Amino acid sequence: MAKPYEFNWQKEVPSFLQEGAVFDRYEEESFVFEPNCLFKVDEFGFFLTWRSEGKEGQVLECSLINSIRSGAIPKDPKILAALEAVGKSENDLEGRIVCVCSGTDLVNISFTYMVAENPEVTKQWVEGLRSIIHNFRANNVSPMTCLKKHWMKLAFMTNTNGKIPVRSITRTFASGKTEKVIFQALKELVLPITLISLADSSAGSLR
C-alpha cells in the first residue's frame, strides 16, 4: 500500500526574522530614503514587510525576491548625505548594507537596500533571507492558503492609523472588474471608508 504524500511547502523562518530589526532603507534609482524602518518576515515566509514612523506598511513578496547579497556603498551623494544625517557616515557603511534584488523576471528588477546598525546584523539577515527565498513549493499551495495569504497582505499594508485602505482591497479583487463594482459591493456590506487592521493579531494556522 502506497504511503500518503505529505506536501510540505513551508520553510522554517528564523525567529529573528519574525521578530524584526530596524534598518534604514533606500532605493538609488528613484531616490527613496526611509530611516528607522522595522523589517519583518511573517511566520510562513510569504512576505518581507517594513514600516517607518508616519508611513504606510509596505510589502514585498518573498517569491519575487531573486537574490540577497551584501550591498556596496551607495554612489549617489544624496543617499550618502541622507545616511550621514542619521548618523551613518560613508566610512561606517562597509559591511552594513543588505541588497534585496526582486522582480517578476530577470530583466525588470529593482533593488532595495537595507542599512543595518552593525555588520553582524547584516550577515545574519543576509543568511536568514537566503534560507527562505526560492521556495517554489509555496507557489502551489491550496486555494484556502492563497486566500489567507491575500488577507495577510492586506493586513500588513495598513495606513498610518493602522487601518486597511479601501484601495488596497480594490487592488486585490479588481481582476476583471472595475473599481466601481467593488466600491458598490463594499457599500452593500455597510463597510466604512477604511477597515480595522488585524495585522498584529495571530495569523493562525495554515493547512
UniProtKB/TrEMBL annotation:
GO terms for biological process: intracellular signal transduction; lipid catabolic process. Keywords: Hydrolase, Lipid degradation, Lipid metabolism. It is an enzyme of class 3 (hydrolase). Pfam families: PH_14, PLCB1-4-like_EFh. InterPro entries: PI-PLC_fam, PLC-beta_PH, PLCB1-4-like_EFh. Residues 147-192 form the Phosphoinositide phospholipase C beta 1-4-like EF-hand domain. Gene3D superfamilies: 2.30.29.240. Residues 12-140 form the PLC-beta PH domain. GO terms for molecular function: phosphatidylinositol-4,5-bisphosphate phospholipase C activity. This is phosphoinositide phospholipase C. It comes from Homo sapiens (Human).
